[in-house]
Amino acid sequence: MKRSRFLPCSVAVLVAITMIVGCSRGPSEEELAQAEFEEHLAQLQTQYEDLQQRRADLEAAQIALVEIEAIKERDRTDEQKAEMEALPVTIEELSVARDDAFDVAQGSLADFLNVALNEFPEHPATVEGLNIYADEAILIARDTVFKAGDYKKATEQLGSALSYYESLSLPVYPVLADTLAELEDMRFINQERFDLIKKNMTMDEVKEIAGVPYYQNIQLDEKRGVETWLYRKEDGGAAAIYFKTKTSKSYDKKWDAVKTRVVSD
To answer: Which helix (H) or strand (E) holds 253?
Structure first.
C-alpha cells in the first residue's frame, strides 16, 4: 500500500502564511513615490485651471468697463451707470484673486518640476508639467514684448523653457517652438515688413506688421508733434516710422534712417 504524502502541519501553516503575506504585500516605496508624483500633477492642473479662470474673469470685467466708458455719458443706461460704478471694485477684487491663484500655481509648479526633473525625467507627467511651465513662459515673454518691445529678453525667457526639453531629450512643445520662432523673426525689421507700412496706419496696425518698438528707441518731438519709432535691422542701423502725435497715425517712413547702432534690445 502506498503511503499518503502530506506536509507536516507546521510546514503547511508556514506555507499558507507565506502565500498570504506575498499576496497582500503593499506597494513599494518607488510605486508610492510615483503615485504621489502623479497626484501632484493632478493638483497642479487643477490649480492652473483655476488661475486661467481667474484671468478670464478679470479680463472680462476690464473689457466690460472699457466698453461702457466708450459710451457717451448721456447715452448710458441706469444699469450701465451702476455697473460702471461697481466694476472698479470688482476688478480690484478679481486682480487680487488672480494674483493669489498665480502664487499658488507657481509655487506648486516649482515644487513639481523640482521632483520631476530630478526623479522622474522620463515620466509622461513631467512633460505635462513642462508644458504648463512653457505656457507661463510664453505669457511672460509676450507681456515683455507688449510693454517694452524687448524681443531679446522675451526670446531668452522662452529659450530657458526650451532648454528643459532639450536637456531631457524630450519633444519640444509645439506652441513654445512656434512662439520662439515668431519672436525671433520680429526682433529685427526686414524690408518685406517695412514695405507693408503705409501712410495713415494706426500705431496698433504698425505694431502688427513691424513689431513693438524697443522702448528706448521711441523718440518724441513735442515741438514738431512727431513721434518716431526706430526698428533695428539685423545688419546694423535702423529703419524709422514717423507718426503725427495729434492723430497717432503714420505719415512717413525711412529705411536708412540710422546707419549707426541704435539702443540694443
So the answer is: strand 249-258
